[in-house]
Amino acid sequence: MTLHLDAMVLHVVRLPLVSPFTTSFGTEDEKVALLLEARTTVLDEGAGREVTGWGECVAMVDPLYSSEYIAGVRGVLVDHLLPRVFASQRERGLTAETVGEVLAPVIGHPMAKAALEMALLDAQLRAAGTSFADYLGVTVDRVPSGVSVGIQDSVPELLAVVGDYLDQGYRRIKLKIRPGLDVEPTGAVRERFGDIPLQVDANAAYTLADAAALRRLDAFDLLLIEQPLAEDDLRQHAVLARQLATPICLDESVVSAARAADALALGAASIINIKPGRVGGYLEARRIHDLCRASGAAVWCGGMLETGLGRAANAALAGLPGFTLTGDISGSDRFYAVDLTPPVVMVDGHVAVRREPGLGDHPEPARLEEFGVGSQVVEAP
Ligand code: NPG
Q: Is this structure's pTM higher than 0.90?
């Protein structure tokens, strides 16, 4: 199926979080998100049916998790990516599967490219009446739900928060750590809750000089330690991996399938956190899944506080068979009192794989009105 992109609308929304979320790089009390609304026409049908697709960008306001940030994403979309899409579709039409090649000459910017591809893929699947899960060949009807717990002010508060998530049914707990707030809180959670599936995430806050402190985490039989060192430190991760019993999982470092292959080949990681928005899109995410599966490396699906749109798409992706570890796929209510879309709900520790056409439910107009802080329409010339 071939589409024509008539216009892309860039929407910025601000959603309050139910509680502040603290990582090693800062505290968020709201989620500012850039959403893309692709207004398209289906070309290979006589009358030219109009179909809208939505994409969600995972970039944040500040470039603290990666080099990308919302204002930069908007700039690269308007000045570079959308003009390339508009120019190329005149010659050969547009499909979600080929837009990556059209955008490839622009170096970097995987989060911006991912959002654009997502909006087109959603439009294409809706036009075809196909769910994302069916497109991927996913057969399971639900995926287990893990929760990411931000850094808390004290160990008693952390134990209360973790206990509450376990009571709600979450199947795996991930604790955010940073230097000095690692061994004690992690040990306290292990001691209080016993043999629960437990892992930690450093968001690149350590250096190789901290190896001794990280080795102390080996005592807690963790599933993995996520991204202990900086994004570019593939070689140092390989050195660290040889000093730890706990498997290393990479997140920030893996911005493409090629980087995932390098990380595995170097021994920098034995597990990959696949975030579609970070790696350039759901199609690249599937390529990483495929290559990890072929190499015997486990993967799981990360989260970036997505609204129901990205959350539903992540749940479908996580239904692929190589996703053998529980992902950060929580219910909407983990972060939002009111989501932009109908909420994604966790039932019995699982999130359902959506079977309606497209990647996720579209934002409800009233919610977009309530939480929107600006939009920009970019029309095809
Ligand atoms: O469940 O969506 C979720 C959040 C999971 O902890 C989570 N995400 O480093 O993985 C991360 C972290 C994150 C969130 C990073 C937002 C950057 C932005």
A: yes
